[in-house]
Structures are given as C-alpha cells and as structure tokens.
Design brief:
Elements lengths: L14 H14 L5 E2 L11 H13 L11 H15 L8 E4 L1 H13 L5 E6 L3 H9 L3 E6 L10 H6 L6 E5 L11 H13 L3 E5 L22 E5 L12 E4 L5 H11 L5 H10 L3 H21 L16 E5 L7 H12 L1 E2 L1 E2 L11 E5 L4 H15 L1
Parallel strand pairs: 1-10, 3-4, 3-5, 5-6, 6-7
Antiparallel strand pairs: 2-8, 7-8, 9-12, 11-12
Helix pairs in contact: 2-9, 3-9, 4-5, 4-8, 10-12
Length: about 375
C-alpha cells in the first residue's frame, strides 16, 4: 500500500529555481549561459565580512546562539535603522532569522491562524503565495498594474469581497522593482492598523534603489512586521541570514517558534552580519554597478522588442509585458535559453493569471554579461 504524501507538498514550484537548474544543466553539458533568471548578486560578500568570519571560525566553537540572534548583531541592526532611516527601534524587537525565508515562515505562523486570508499583489514574489498555502492560509491575490505603479492601494483593499487578516507588500517589489511613495506606504499602514490587518513589509531590496531611498514601515506602524535580509544589498545570498523587526508583544511567540523550528540562524553568518554594516561604501559601489546595468537594459531591451516595461525604481529587475511576442512566457523562456543561452524567468512564476505574457529580467550580474545578453536578444528577435 502506498503511503500518503501531505497535500502541502503539492504547492506550485518556485519556477525561477527550475529555470536556474535548467541553465546549470546547460552549463554542465558545455553550453554557455548568461544568467538573468535569478536575483542573486554576482559580487561576493564584502571583504570585512569574509575576514570577520575567518577570525570567528578560528576563535569560536561556532555553537548555537540565542534563537533571536547574537545580541551584538541585534543591536547593530537596531543601530542601522537609526543611521539609515533616522528611526529609533529597540534591539529587543529585532529577530535574526535563517534568511528572509525563515522570517516569512515565522511571521506567518505567529500572525495568522489556519484559514486566515492574507493579501498579496499579483505580480508578486511567488514564495509568499506558496508558503501561505502550504501552511493552511488563504492567499488573496490583488491584481496590480501600471495604473497604481504595480502596488496596492487602500481603495483596492476596500473593494475586495473578502476581509483580510494580513497584507504583504514589497517596496521595492519583485518582479517589478516598483516602489511605494512615502505617502502611499503611510496610507497603507494606517489602513491596515485601522482595519485590524497585520501589515508585513518585505524590505529585502532596501538599499538598492535609484533616485530616492525606500521608506520603512516601522516609521508608520508599531503593529507592522518588517522583513529584511543580508542576501541582496549586502551580497550574501548563500549565507542564509535575515532579520525581522516585530511588535514587542510578538517577540516571545516568535522566539518560541524559532527555538523549535530553527534553533538559531547560522552562527558563522551572524558574525559576518555584524561586520557587514561597516561595509556600506563597498556595497554602494555594487548598487552603482546595478544602476549601470539598469540603464543599459532600459536602453537596449526595447531594441529587441521588449518595449512594455514596468517601472524599475529599485531592486535589480525589469518586468516586461511580452503579449505582442508570446502568449506562453514559460515556453518562450525555455526557447530563448535553448537557442541563445540567455536564462530568463517567465511571468507565470509571479502572476498565475496574467503571467503567461510577462517576463522578468534580472540585472544583478556583470555589465559585460548584460551587454552580451542584450546583443543576443536583439539578434535573436530581429
């Protein structure tokens, strides 16, 4: 008799990871690949981070830490909010996590009960939707587009035919790179507080913006949960280190969940995280490189036929409407990878209903790779 497999494992795949696997298989068989599918900086962790972890590795036993994180790291994160945003928060409200993925798991489990309804934008980061479904919550997709800068509004929330228990918003967003204005973020926080909706602010692309800094929801709401990560701006994807800023009354419940689910975030990575905040000048040079890549692609992609682009205010993504080129973005991306070696992500990863005619370009790689990819796409689609 075959034993059952839990239904939570039947959630949709994170398609970008499938694309990356196909790209890696092509490389393993001798083919070349220009990676524009995955949101991963091509730069290494900052030099001071490498030195701090080497020192810790030789001097420390690298055992478990407190479930909430090394006190020095929690204090350094709190100081960062004062230095970067001009906002004062208590270090006791900071929770160090196993990447932002661990933070989302902890935030969902601590904020919602089975069956609760949680709003998220479409397009949006697919893991929100998939984690919510796996945990027994009901994701409520909110279609957004250029008319609202690919972000939700209080009016949209008012028009829903369900009552939300939570709302997840990313600014800058993935896949669009769009950002909320300061006033719009404040309005969403006020709406959620006034309607008993737990606001979860995904701020993992803060620091990677063009034209203005992103605002943090902690400035506008004491009830919001903030999620950030060392993966993107700090260029530490494989270190699996993130953090949350949470309401004071959620600290102990989250600590208990973290103790049982994770024990603690990776200890060696936490030592590196402390040093990362001393590397902002080096990290801002990475952002300047992303800005050059962004400018190149915004100029060159329209020449290849990708001329319907979402605003790319931050992060390192460009989201393109390709309805005039294909009605099957997944097959289109596979064909482009097979015939040009350029790896791209289909929009169905981010929007189940409309993503079949959208694609995402990541420009986190080197300038030379962006140049080559743009040239191949122009030649292929001309």
């Amino acid at each position: 008799m075959a034993l059952k497999i839990a239904k939570r494992g039947t959630v949709a795949p994170f398609i970008v990871m499938d694309v990356m696997r196909a790209a890696n298989e092509r490389e393993a068989s001798g083919g070349d690949v220009l990676h524009m599918e995955v949101g991963q900086p091509s730069t290494s962790a900052p030099q001071a981070v490498l030195e701090a972890t080497q020192k810790a590795l030789m001097a420390d036993k690298i055992g478990y830490t407190d479930a909430l994180g090394i006190p020095q790291l929690r204090e350094r994160i709190a100081q960062y909010y004062q230095d970067y945003y001009g906002v004062s928060i208590a270090a006791e409200r900071v929770v160090v996590t196993t990447g932002s993925s661990g933070a989302f798991l902890l935030s969902f489990l601590s904020a919602f009960e089975a069956g609760d309804k949680v709003g998220l934008t479409a397009p949006g980061y697919p893991a929100y939707r998939n984690i919510l479904r796996a945990l027994g919550y009901e994701p409520v997709e909110i279609p957004v587009g250029p008319e609202t800068h690919f972000q939700p509004t209080p009016e949209m929330l008012d028009s829903l035919d369900v009552t939300l228990d939570g709302l997840i918003v990313a600014s800058p967003g993935n896949p669009t790179g769009s950002m909320l204005s300061r006033d719009d973020l404040q309005a969403l926080c006020a709406y959620c507080d006034g309607n008993g909706i737990r606001f979860i602010s995904d701020e993992i692309y803060h620091g990677i913006t063009y034209g203005r800094k992103a605002d943090t929801a902690v400035e506008f709401s004491d009830n919001a949960i903030l999620v950030n990560s060392f993966s993107k701006y700090f260029s530490m994807t494989g270190w699996r280190l993130g953090w949350m800023v949470v309401p004071q009354d959620m600290v102990r419940p989250i600590e208990c969940l973290a103790q049982n689910l994770f024990i603690s975030a990776p200890t060696l990575s936490q030592f590196g995280g402390i040093a990362a905040f001393d590397c902002l000048e080096e990290l801002d040079q990475n952002v300047a490189a992303y800005a050059r890549n962004r400018e190149l692609l915004l100029n060159e992609l329209p020449k290849a036929g990708f001329n319907r682009l979402a605003p790319s205010d931050g992060a390192f993504y460009i989201y393109a409407d390709v309805a005039h080129l294909t009605n099957d973005s997944q097959a289109f991306c596979k064909k482009i990878l097979s015939e040009t070696g350029v790896a791209l992500t289909p929009g169905v990863d981010f929007d189940e209903a409309r993503g079949h005619h959208f694609m995402r370009f990541s420009y986190a790689g080197s300038y030379a790779h962006m140049q080559e990819a743009a040239m191949r796409l122009k030649e292929y689609l001309s």
